What we know:
The chain is mostly helical. 75% of the residues lie in helices and 4% in strands. It has six helices and two strands. The protein has a two-stranded antiparallel sheet with strand order 1-2. β1 and β2 form a beta hairpin.
Amino acid sequence: MPEYARLYDLLEGITGRFIKDRERREISDATFMTLGVALSVSLFGKYALLGLAISVPGDALASLTGKSIGGPKVLNGKTLTGFLAFVVWGGVVGLVLDAPLDFLLLGAAVGIVEMFLVKWENLVLALWASLLALLLFYPTLV
């Protein structure tokens, strides 16, 4: 038995039900997420934090909501309820940061792009949300 076989079996037991079939053959979504976060922070600085506050939890919430509640499929197997969860999450972040409309729009814009993406979703969403945050908030955070 190779020396890493036991470690692999342990990790497979913990994460196996969360890993998509394609991630067993290709680079995982977690790798793309890490790359997206690193690039976003490098390129957009403090604005990346605003974008990532929407994209990272929003994507997870949209996925969980879409899979658990279901609803009409919109694009690429993604549901309307998942998209709405993204928008609502944007509004929640906006309420906390005292800019509800801005973040509601940011959540909607990121949620719309999320519905079109299948591959490299986590990389693109992090960068897209961070760029939008820069465009929305640049004059006010300088």
